């Protein structure tokens, strides 16, 4: 449950605005270095751009085309670290690059790109690439159209199917070291009260109460809302001072058609996008178009849906507009550069920015999922210097909570699946829970030891169990039904979209959080609205 807000007399080393992958990463790093930390997220942890991504941990093969070799090298190194730090959440994924209508020069460049990708990831855990004949490509992926197929390449990157959990585990790790984590709490005011003494006014959005927090450093890690936060706190005066170029990326989800991730070269503009196996579906995305509105209002529009379906169906069988189950859309917080570029050409590198009208303010810009740990390190290094402390980062060595004690995930899963079967869970359920919680599955087992009824399914359509709801409320900062169904367990992404069990979830959470009938009914309606906004079923006939 939510801790009582501390007294305004408390002085924190660091206050962080934003509970996405960047904010929680900085909270973990700073807390591990002995700093006192409070983090505020106006919605829920990982509810923004983090949960709207393509769910990949990758070096960025396409960045080789723009000669951004430093970015590729850095991201490949981070990919390897995340495989060790969170082996339950970050898993190897096979990628196929089919060639259709490509010149000899283009195919030669692909071969060179594959060689460079392997070279930049020397010492990696993953297999090296292979060039494939048309027959080999078709054998690997029968969904690919044979006409015009010129062969291709096979290589490996990684996937974080439930990337929301990476942010949550960073927050859990930070809390273990004393950090205070507050979701559904918005920073609404800021005042520089003196040297190394800043005051942030915070509104608890669930109770309506307001509190004041003092800190030495304020970190703005609000993703695509970064400029909005600076303006709201009077730390940025005009639109001309904007630090971000925000672009929208949409995804469409259809029944599974492929086993490997497939890279598609769009014929209309030669952009690369993915068709990715994900939770029993195929995830198609993403687009890259400038976006100037409120990131919370980002939606998959008909033009972008048409683009993804038409381009992917030109090389894959079984894709059509009427197959779409749901869509989602997010906004990237790209660092604004001095010269105008096509959206896809804007650098994906991050930047740490100090200052503004007030002292003690640090903004973290342009952080991607793959690079979040190293970006958090760089930000925390700067914070440490400003606090006059000599500290070292250890987030590259200490696993996230669910990754502790796991050397080889397959062996870990085999042993622990047998334990879970003792509670009446089948193999599918056991693997599902182990891929979400890793070694933290012991916390679920402790709950089931209290009462075996907690091992029952949340609903017949999903592998998730009641013990997960209890753990989410008691240990994982879940305060609403949407928090659980969308970001603690992947139930919202299932065929029933959580609608078959939302009443059960509300009842269990209500019992733990002392909700009355009116509050439970409101939670159910809020979840249904959140589904319509975040994972809408698109039925537009204009295709």
Short structural description:
The chain is of the alpha+beta class and about 550 residues long.
Characterise the protein shown here.
The structure is a single chain. With 543 residues, the chain is α+β, with helices and mostly antiparallel strands. Helices cover 34% and strands 22% of the residues. A hairpin with a 5-residue loop joins strand 9 and strand 10. It has 3 domains: 158 residues, FAD/NAD(P)-binding domain; 185 residues, 2-Layer Sandwich (D-Amino Acid Oxidase, Chain A, domain 2); 129 residues, Alpha-glycerophosphate oxidase, cap domain (Helicase, Ruva Protein, domain 3, Orthogonal Bundle), CATH 1.10.8.870. It has 15 helices and 18 strands.
Largest sheet: 10 strands, mixed
Based on secondary structure, the structural category is alpha+beta
The percentage of residues in β strands lies in: 15-25%
CATH homologous superfamily annotation of the largest domain: D-Amino Acid Oxidase, subunit A, domain 2
Radius of gyration: 23 Å
The fold-level CATH name of the largest domain is D-Amino Acid Oxidase, Chain A, domain 2
What is the level 1 CATH name of the largest domain? Alpha Beta
What share of residues is helical? 25-40%
The number of helical segments is: 15
Low-confidence stretches: none
| Count of all domains | 3
Mean pLDDT, to the nearest integer, reads 93
| Gross geometry | globular
**CATH architecture descriptor text of the largest domain:** 2-Layer Sandwich
List its salient traits.
Helicase, Ruva Protein, domain 3, alpha+beta, 3 domains, FAD/NAD(P)-binding domain, globular, 18 strands
